[in-house]
Amino acid sequence: MTPRPAQLVVLAKSPVPGRVKTRLGPTFGALEAAGLARAALVDTLRAAQGAGVQRTVLALDGVAGDWLPPALEVYPQRGGPLDERIAHAMTDAWSTMPLPVLLIGMDTPQVTAADLDHAVERLLEAGTDAVMGPAVDGGYWALGLRRPRTEHLVSVPMSRSDTGSAQLDRLESCGLRVRLLETRRDVDLAADADAVAHEAPGTAFATELARLSAGAA
């Protein structure tokens, strides 16, 4: 199949204990939470590389490890707060290759290559300027823009129960026609981890969670 004229950007942190999945720490411990983050990142990168787009890149905060697939393009995140890092990741990708950009994080290991292909198809449909995948916690798991600009993204409040609605309001206030994708669950808390592993039992994330649960039994 001919790759679609779009690109995927995975926004991620290196899975270092104490820096990732800190809200899982009270249940699993910092080292175990980092292991779950690593597994989620592996699943996310596998899905991204399986999608039929012209380019897939990783915008990374930290240092790459043995979890990085070969030949995957990597560039460092820049900016301070999360809204700035999202804006720079999308606009940097566009400036390098002026194709529509779909950005995802590393918190939804249940997302498949087919899910990403569907999101890209929606983004490329006539009459669509942007797509957003709402998250159960009020944020969003995916954001796509045909032509990303910093004003679409900067100063949107992050990591809040109204982040998704605030981002949608911002896009629409900029005159963009937005299509919503399916709602997904982010892995933030232990209950989220259980639900996502149940939804996607064949993932590296589910395997790692089962290993940790067996060790704690």
Describe this structure in words.
The termini are far apart. The longest helix is centred in the N-terminal third of the chain and has 21 residues. This protein has seven helices and seven strands; from the N terminus they run βααββαβαββαβαα. The model has no long low-confidence stretch (mean pLDDT 96). With 217 residues, it is α/β, with parallel strands linked by helices. The chain is globular and about 50 Å long. Strands 3-2-1-4-6-5-7 form a seven-stranded mixed β-sheet, with helices on both faces. Helix 2 runs antiparallel to helix 7.
SSE blueprint and pairings:
Blueprint: E1 4-13, H1 25-28, H2 30-50, E2 53-61, E3 73-76, H3 82-96, E4 101-104, H4 113-124, E5 130-134, E6 140-145, H5 163-173, E7 178-180, H6 190-199, H7 204-216
Parallel strand pairs: 1-2, 1-4, 2-3, 5-7
Antiparallel strand pairs: 4-6, 5-6
Helix pairs in contact: 2-7, 6-7
Structural features:
seven-stranded mixed sheet; alpha/beta; 217 residues; single chain; globular; 19% strand
Q: H/E series, N to C?
A: EHHEEHEHEEHEHH
Overall pLDDT confidence: 96
Distance between the termini: 46 Å
**How many beta-strand segments?**
7
Instruction: Determine the number of helices (DSSP H or I, runs of at least 4 residues).
Output: 7
Biggest beta sheet attributes: 7 strands, mixed
Please outline what is shown here.
This protein has 217 residues and is of the alpha/beta class. The chain is built from 7 helices and 7 strands, in the order βααββαβαββαβαα. A hairpin with a 5-residue loop joins strand 5 (130-134) and strand 6 (140-145).
